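Standup, Tuesday
Yesterday: got the pipeline producing structure tokens again.
Today: sanity-check two examples.
Blockers: none.

Example 1:
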Amino acid sequence: MDFDEFREFGHASIEFIINYLSGIRERDVLPSVAPYTVINQLPKEIPEKPEHWREVLKDLEGIILPGLTHWQSPYFNAFYPSSSSAGSIVGELLIAGIGVLGFSWICSPACTELEVVVMDWLAKFLKLPEHFQHASDGPGGGVIQGSASEAVLVAVLAAREQAVISCKETHPELSESEVRGKLIAYSSDQSNSCIEKAGVLAAMPIKLLPADDDLILRGNTLRKAIEDDVAAGLIPVICIATLGTTGTCAYDDIDSLADVCQALNVWLHVDAAYAGGGFALEECTDLRRGLDRVDSLNFNLHKFMLVNFDCSAMWLRDANKVVDSFNVDRIYLKHKHEGQSQIPDFRHWQIPLGRRFRALKVWITFRTLGAEGLRSHVRKHIALAQQFEAFVRNDSRFEMVAPQALGLVCFRPRGDNEHTAQLLQRLMERKKIYMVKAEHAGRQFLRFAVCGMDAKPSDIEFAWTEIETQLTALLAEKSLPARKPSNVSELTQHFQMHLASDSGTHEKSQ
């Protein structure tokens, strides 16, 4: 493929993306394929002769897209958003085209230095403590990891190695294997599965502590667990707290957890993969309480900052603790400027050696949207979730399970778990919207997350109409009362006006 053909292919691909995204509401959010549908439509071997790119795009439309779940659809309301934007998409294209691997400064100085810049930009935008900036006098700073899973694993591994070093100094009579066999970590039973997986990969048990009835992990629970484990001869290493749990977007009590961790010399990491977007808003100031006392934290830009996956920001109070834990040098990795400046070699801050130029798409996204645009995006998600919550509360057949938090609403039809399961099954079969269910204290419930590149009040109305009409049909089949809710269109009009007023100067959300 020469450059002229490449240009045609590139232009056609951009048009393909635009047509896909602009028409995404017309597609069922869930695919209608059986297992092996895609496999059976494709050749069993690489084509012997090159094929024209038009044939590739034709098969992309005819074979691949029908087998996709459409994550950028506003009718994708499962899990949490995996957002994108025009700037981020172009940034991803440029990253691939430039094709650098920035594992050290000399491999591409701009790759490393741009990451330093955008991570400090983001720390300031989110109003994080100053010591997390590269520009601060201390040893802290930020790095872009691929995902929250990677960030959590980095924190767990670094904390583990620091604990081994410390324990061998204070207990020289113990062998290293004896020390490693006594290590233990902590998190909430509401935390993401990636935290438990990090314990498996680090060969260190992570004890999932019971959250309180409001689904929040607090310091008194952690203190009791640590004291019991110390009495049993174990060595506490790290607590992974969560701001924005997967099930209900609950916020662990960072202040009280920090009291315990500081007193007992335990690393405190905060997984703010979703809720970290709220740090930027004055009306969400409470979310930042206690962050000045944590050792590390992570936030997924692909959830709220309109930067496409994969892109997870991680900040460290003392990056040297990670570098000392992971540093493996070879002569082919050295360069003459190494150690002569404060510019990091980010290969020491992560699991892999190679590094993508993710900072480029972050930089382009931030410049093309601006801080104002980023804040407006988060506020829009909050307002749309409030619109959906109003629909729930105005229909007596449903009940809220937890307070609306950022862009998430947790609710259920009244009655036993069978109603929840059957309602979700009907919705999944129709494929018009996509939600997932969760469970707490024996009660199953539905999670409605505001997602998509450009969700609107009309999309929330569409989703709610789909939900309540399917419940009406379900209850009719069971010969149960099916009261119609309050006027949906009036509520939608109210939130459209609310969002329109938010496009200018923002007043504190109610």
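Example 2:
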Amino acid sequence: MAMPLAMSKDTTILFFSLPILLFLSIFLLYTNFIIKWNKERKKRRKMNLPPGMSLGLPFLGETLAYLKPHQATSIGHFMDHHINRYGKIYSSNLFGEPTIVSADAGLNRFVLQNEGRWFECSYPKSIGGILGKWSMLVLVGEMHQEMRMISLNFLSAARLRTCLLPEVERQTIHVLQSWQAGSTFSAQEEAKKFTFNLMAKNIMSMDPDEAETEKLRLEYITFMKGVVSAPLNFPGTAYWKALKSRSVILKVIERKMDERLRRSYCSKGIEEDDLLGWALKQSNFSKEQILDLLLSLLFAGHETSSMALALAIFFLEGCPRAVEELREEHLRIIRQQEMRGECKLSWEDYKKMEFTQCVVSETLRLGNVVRFLHRKVIKDVQYKGIDIPSGWKILPVLAAVHLDPSVYEDPQQFNPWRWQSQSRSHLAATTPNFMPYGGGPRLCAGFELAKLEIAVFLHHLVLNYRWELAEPDEAIAYPFVDFRKGLPIKVHKIT
């Protein structure tokens, strides 16, 4: 009977000691946090740092308040309050680090243009953990430049004209032909289906009707939920599920890669003109590097473009005048096609979509799919008398500039006419402040393809359908942009 008694005592001691150990661990971590913070405060006294610098919660600082969901067409209460109190450049404690937050257009341009000199990309480790260490989003330096060059060559102007434009139109028609007149469905899901099918085709030559493509798309939905979730890696969490989906997606890409390599060794079969084939032929990347490159481009090319398209559908539904002007522009293009005896869009047709491009620009300005960027300061630098210390993070908030009333008149109004040539003086003043795809050496490699996708989809949409919201919905920043209800719309066929 002695043994159970001894075990009972040990269990009791353990039961009471665990809370003490937990308390001591938290106390030590918080003490180290305070020591580090005091060092920063001493450093601050010697420098002309921006105002602000609230301590906030331990470890998290003001992160939870900064990331609090708000309407996508606003900057949110946190940014609004801090800008009113401290100005467009202020300091804070975000993501566990001392941070300078910039709502200033000039400083944002300065940061993006000096990538690699004074600043470098610095996303949270959890993003790299799920996208991969060779993802273009997290890479810096020469390796990022090499991968970016592969992407730029694949998405060149010549390929946009000859290969990508016809494919974008095919995928658009494929989605729209599945719509039943009078039916109600999620426009956001349809936009995601369109952009995913397009990227799967251009990355790995996967057709939308294949069972494997649909399976991959469903895995990708799980993957995306994890990218934007808390990085809690234990069974049942969204992050854990996303890592499982990542593994499944990479196995599909790897199988496609092995098939290509076998065919190339045997000199059999037709070579697919996709990014996978391009990377195999044009680079010396390892298998792991190619896998991460393709996964990151599937992520970047699908998620941002689909949300931008959904936002365009949402904004246009509330602006009938813009829809009518769009329809008139695209009817003119159709008449010119008929005069040429053609039935498909040409590059010349696309270049004539001037008002359509105004709609695209206004959607990106007001919707702000990419709201802010993560950068780290790698060298002490000054900007207009403000000290920006090495080791700090700096967040260029693109949305704050796009919604700034001193930069754009009535910034929360959807007004595509603000981009027309008749307002050249206004346009000239605002274009340098318009950065929906970032800027500098890390300017999004696929931004021209994204604009092409939205324009071609709108071309066929306004010519074939009228639509209305099936129930009220709104776009929310979490900070990623999403519609609360998936943007349910009801469509009516135009005959």
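Quick observation on example 2: The first strand starts at residue 70 and ends at 71. DSSP finds 18 helices and 13 strands in the chain.
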